TrEMBL record:
<dbReference type="InterPro" id="IPR003598">
    <property type="entry name" value="Ig_sub2"/>
</dbReference>
<protein>
    <submittedName>
        <fullName>Matrix remodeling associated 5</fullName>
    </submittedName>
</protein>
<dbReference type="InterPro" id="IPR013783">
    <property type="entry name" value="Ig-like_fold"/>
</dbReference>
<dbReference type="InterPro" id="IPR013098">
    <property type="entry name" value="Ig_I-set"/>
</dbReference>
<feature type="domain" description="Ig-like">
    <location>
        <begin position="57"/>
        <end position="143"/>
    </location>
</feature>
<dbReference type="InterPro" id="IPR050467">
    <property type="entry name" value="LRFN"/>
</dbReference>
<keyword id="KW-0732">Signal</keyword>
<dbReference type="Pfam" id="PF13927">
    <property type="entry name" value="Ig_3"/>
</dbReference>
<dbReference type="Pfam" id="PF07679">
    <property type="entry name" value="I-set"/>
</dbReference>
<dbReference type="InterPro" id="IPR036179">
    <property type="entry name" value="Ig-like_dom_sf"/>
</dbReference>
<dbReference type="InterPro" id="IPR007110">
    <property type="entry name" value="Ig-like_dom"/>
</dbReference>
<feature type="domain" description="Ig-like">
    <location>
        <begin position="164"/>
        <end position="231"/>
    </location>
</feature>
<dbReference type="InterPro" id="IPR003599">
    <property type="entry name" value="Ig_sub"/>
</dbReference>
<feature type="domain" description="Ig-like">
    <location>
        <begin position="236"/>
        <end position="313"/>
    </location>
</feature>
Length: 325
């Protein structure tokens, strides 16, 4: 009988000097009749041996089609218990029919055929196929993995504890009337803040803050939004004093002339005196040590961001001449 290299057991078979025939990694192709010949000068003899390879086709013990529901972000394990002789090799195929590596950041296939998937995402949903093979045959099993995700839903209730729900937890951002987007929690005190609970707050709102603000909640399953229109109550200035008043003052005296107005937003008060501009935050004009040059028309103007300007009060100062003794 011919043999491969008798000095190495890595070959298909080896014949040793003592007449022993050694098979390496027996498979179905090794089945058959083998004849051993022995001879010398006197004669020869032979022996026939029939080799029967006992092989069991690879099969999966439980092939029932199952659906596994997995919470988003969880770890999922799927068993695939195979039997057969020789021991079957287990391979998992992804929903895109690609072989899954036995070890990676995302997957792990254990020796017993169990598949592990880390941090299940929506994209991990689908049919996974377990394939077992040996020299006698192969078998398959399909498992449907469904990763539970829910699109965001904004309830829109002002007193609700949770403004948006979804699986996974939705990401919240605010779109301003000027299309500016705020999605990062504000860490320092500022007039406009996005809080940890994703509530948007605006301090000391002005007329320029008016407009539509959109809250957008999004996750792997979709998005939802709600729009809120911010109205800033606007009232043009209304002067509280008489529209016209004549004042006569002794020479050298002092006087306070008031000009107050109701408006939203709060108005600025300006006085025009003989063409010269004076600005007093509290709306009061103070004249000290009245002299003849102070005579004239005093005009108070109140204005706010509504855009209206209103001339409301006329003040006349007439300086009386000194009394003769």
């Amino acid at each position: 009988m011919q043999s491969d290299d008798s000095g190495s057991r890595t070959k298909r078979y080896v014949v040793f000097n003592n007449g022993t025939l050694y098979f390496n990694d027996v498979g179905l192709r090794e089945e058959g009749d083998y004849t051993c010949y022995a001879e010398n000068q006197i004669g020869k003899d032979e022996m026939k041996v029939r080799v029967k390879v006992v092989a069991e086709p690879a099969t999966i013990r439980n092939k029932t089609y199952v659906i596994i529901n997995v919470p988003y972000g969880d770890v999922v394990t799927v068993a695939c218990e195979a039997k057969g002789e020789p021991t079957p090799k287990v391979t998992w195929l992804s929903p895109t029919n690609r072989p899954i590596p036995t070890l990676s950041e995302k997957y792990q296939v254990y020796r017993d055929g169990t598949l592990l998937i880390q941090k299940a995402q929506r994209s991990d949903s689908g049919n996974y196929t377990c394939v077992v093979r040996n020299s006698a045959g192969e078998d398959r099993k399909v498992v449907w993995i469904h990763v539970n995700v829910q699109p965001p839903r904004i309830n829109g209730h002002l007193n609700a504890i949770t403004s948006a729900s979804g699986t996974p937890s939705p990401h919240i951002s605010w779109i301003f009337p000027d299309r500016k987007i705020l999605q990062t929690v504000t860490t320092t005190e500022s007039r406009i803040m996005l809080h940890e609970n994703r509530t948007l707050s605006i301090k000391q709102a002005t007329f320029s803050d008016r407009g539509v603000y959109k809250c957008v909640a999004s996750n792997a399953a979709g998005a939802d939004s709600i729009s809120v229109r911010l109205h800033i109550a606007a009232l043009p200035p209304i002067i509280q004093q008489d529209k016209q008043e004549n004042i006569s003052l002794p020479l050298g005296s002092s006087v306070n002339i008031h000009c107050t107005a109701k408006a939203a937003p709060s108005p600025s008060i300006r006085w025009f005196v003989n063409g010269n501009l004076f600005v007093f935050p509290n709306g009061t004009l103070y004249i000290r040590n009245v002299s003849p040059k102070d005579s004239g028309i005093y005009e108070c103007i109140a204005a706010n961001m509504v855009g209206a300007r209103s001339t409301v009060t006329l003040e006349m100062v007439r300086v009386m001449p000194p009394t003769l003794g």
